[in-house]
């Protein structure tokens, strides 16, 4: 028991970082509870432990009495004077009451209680060590899974990455060593303090940039805002007060080395680095490049940006399942309203209408026929003059006779004298 106890003290102090005095206190409480079963309700029972020697002794403070009525609280004068020669009735005497064998039940109770107290002390140490590390990036090894949670070995302690903090496109395997963002250290939980880890948090990307880009760590370049859909795409807006420093170039690095390291850590998640601009309209244009914005308006009161793009750019501006628009909105901090430009369409329709009207007036064809010709690009009489039946027939679903009739009318219009 002595050698085993000493070994336990040394192990928990060295490997778990638990203070020896706390272990002694825990063991004293555990053994006190166990001793009451084997010793009985002795008066002021206490346990003394020497952690260096590994010895355990039990003492009771008994009252010296002429007539002993309760042996758990009183001690006869003759016995008391063996311990304290000048003992008198009414004095208190410390008497060692250590059983030769605490008994199997007492020992088991003590061990269980001690282990529980040690686990509590270990969790308290965890909180003290990690409470100021929220926002840090730590390395750990995946140890096991608890339903959708990933349990990560951080060395002395374990962290948990809940299902919502996982990246949907990443696969996790026991034994994988990865980096994690310390999202929080929670003290008041049913299982004691917990280190909540994340790989999906936007600030994980921020910290990776701080590690890779020296200009960010020394504050020459500032990350103004980040918008992320973990596993798919991240937009990062950067700025530098130093006009000589290109913030985007600094983040990209020589031949893209810096951003490649970050993308590799994020398992090939797409990362867009954007020039921040205090002008919301200009910032929005930067965030949506290379899409060409035809018009833009900023509603400061309602925090909304209205913009129009061409029909060809509309789907790109919105992005797959609205991702590009969502990320841009989060990045600039304004709601984004993207609309297709109708002005160009109206101009085109007006041009087509004018062309069709010219054909109707000159050739005497119906408006429907003129519209079909215009839709095929035959918007002027001169173009019609250079066209053949094979060029016109597609406008009438391949009807060559109808196409020839149109050409005949054109010929009559061009040379009215010869026709007469």
UniProtKB/TrEMBL annotation:
<dbReference type="GO" id="GO:0005829">
    <property type="term" value="C:cytosol"/>
</dbReference>
<dbReference type="InterPro" id="IPR003029">
    <property type="entry name" value="S1_domain"/>
</dbReference>
<feature type="domain" description="S1 motif">
    <location>
        <begin position="135"/>
        <end position="200"/>
    </location>
</feature>
<keyword id="KW-0889">Transcription antitermination</keyword>
<keyword id="KW-0694">RNA-binding</keyword>
<dbReference type="GO" id="GO:0031564">
    <property type="term" value="P:transcription antitermination"/>
</dbReference>
<dbReference type="InterPro" id="IPR015946">
    <property type="entry name" value="KH_dom-like_a/b"/>
</dbReference>
<dbReference type="InterPro" id="IPR010213">
    <property type="entry name" value="TF_NusA"/>
</dbReference>
<dbReference type="GO" id="GO:0003700">
    <property type="term" value="F:DNA-binding transcription factor activity"/>
</dbReference>
<keyword id="KW-0806">Transcription termination</keyword>
<dbReference type="Pfam" id="PF08529">
    <property type="entry name" value="NusA_N"/>
</dbReference>
<dbReference type="Pfam" id="PF13184">
    <property type="entry name" value="KH_NusA_1st"/>
</dbReference>
<dbReference type="InterPro" id="IPR058582">
    <property type="entry name" value="KH_NusA_2nd"/>
</dbReference>
<dbReference type="InterPro" id="IPR004087">
    <property type="entry name" value="KH_dom"/>
</dbReference>
<dbReference type="InterPro" id="IPR009019">
    <property type="entry name" value="KH_sf_prok-type"/>
</dbReference>
<keyword id="KW-0804">Transcription</keyword>
<dbReference type="InterPro" id="IPR036555">
    <property type="entry name" value="NusA_N_sf"/>
</dbReference>
<dbReference type="Pfam" id="PF26594">
    <property type="entry name" value="KH_NusA_2nd"/>
</dbReference>
<comment type="function">
    <text>Participates in both transcription termination and antitermination.</text>
</comment>
<dbReference type="GO" id="GO:0006353">
    <property type="term" value="P:DNA-templated transcription termination"/>
</dbReference>
<dbReference type="GO" id="GO:0003723">
    <property type="term" value="F:RNA binding"/>
</dbReference>
<dbReference type="InterPro" id="IPR012340">
    <property type="entry name" value="NA-bd_OB-fold"/>
</dbReference>
<dbReference type="InterPro" id="IPR025249">
    <property type="entry name" value="TF_NusA_KH_1st"/>
</dbReference>
<keyword id="KW-0963">Cytoplasm</keyword>
<dbReference type="InterPro" id="IPR030842">
    <property type="entry name" value="TF_NusA_bacterial"/>
</dbReference>
<protein>
    <recommendedName>
        <fullName>Transcription termination/antitermination protein NusA</fullName>
    </recommendedName>
</protein>
<dbReference type="InterPro" id="IPR013735">
    <property type="entry name" value="TF_NusA_N"/>
</dbReference>
<comment type="similarity">
    <text>Belongs to the NusA family.</text>
</comment>
<keyword id="KW-0805">Transcription regulation</keyword>
<comment type="subunit">
    <text>Monomer. Binds directly to the core enzyme of the DNA-dependent RNA polymerase and to nascent RNA.</text>
</comment>
């Amino acid at each position: 028991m002595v050698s085993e106890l000493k070994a336990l003290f040394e192990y928990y102090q060295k490997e778990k970082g638990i203070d020896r005095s706390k272990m002694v206190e825990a063991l004293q409480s555990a053994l006190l509870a166990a001793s009451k079963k084997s010793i009985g309700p002795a008066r002021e029972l206490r346990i003394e432990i020497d952690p260096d020697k590994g010895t355990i002794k039990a003492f009771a403070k008994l009252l010296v009495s002429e007539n002993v009525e309760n042996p758990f609280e009183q001690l006869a004068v003759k016995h008391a004077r063996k311990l304290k020669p000048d003992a008198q009735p009414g004095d208190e005497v410390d008497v060692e009451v250590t059983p030769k064998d605490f008994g199997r039940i007492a020992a088991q109770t003590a061990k269980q209680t001690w282990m529980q107290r040690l686990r509590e002390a270990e969790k308290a140490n965890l909180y003290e060590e990690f409470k100021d590390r929220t926002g840090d990036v730590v390395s750990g090894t995946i140890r096991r899974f608890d339903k959708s949670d990933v349990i990560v070995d951080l060395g002395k302690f374990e962290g948990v990455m809940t299902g919502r903090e996982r990246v949907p496109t990443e696969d996790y395997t026991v034994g994988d060593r990865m980096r994690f963002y310390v999202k929080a250290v929670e003290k008041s939980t049913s299982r004691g303090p917990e280190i909540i880890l994340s790989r999906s948090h936007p600030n994980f990307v921020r910290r990776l940039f701080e590690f890779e880009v020296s200009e960010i760590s020394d504050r020459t370049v500032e990350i103004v805002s980040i918008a992320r859909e973990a596993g798919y795409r991240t937009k990062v807006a950067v700025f530098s007060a130093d006009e000589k420093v290109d913030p985007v170039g600094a983040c990209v690095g020589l031949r893209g080395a810096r951003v490649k390291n970050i993308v590799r850590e994020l398992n090939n998640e797409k990362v867009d680095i954007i020039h921040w601009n205090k002008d919301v309209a200009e910032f929005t244009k930067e965030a949506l490049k290379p899409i060409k914005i035809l018009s833009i308006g900023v509603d400061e009161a309602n925090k909304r940006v209205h913009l129009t793009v061409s029909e060809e750019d509309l789907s790109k501006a919105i992005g797959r399942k609205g991702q590009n628009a969502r990320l841009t909105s989060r990045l600039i901090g304004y709601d984004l309203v993207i609309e297709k430009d109708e002005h160009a369409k109206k101009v085109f329709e007006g041009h087509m209408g004018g062309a069709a009207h010219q054909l109707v007036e000159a050739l005497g064809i119906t408006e429907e026929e003129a519209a079909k010709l215009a839709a095929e690009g035959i918007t002027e009489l001169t173009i019609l003059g250079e066209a053949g039946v094979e060029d016109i027939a597609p406008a009438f679903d391949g009807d060559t006779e109808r196409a020839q009739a149109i050409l005949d009318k054109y010929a009559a219009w061009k040379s009215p004298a010869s026709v007469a």
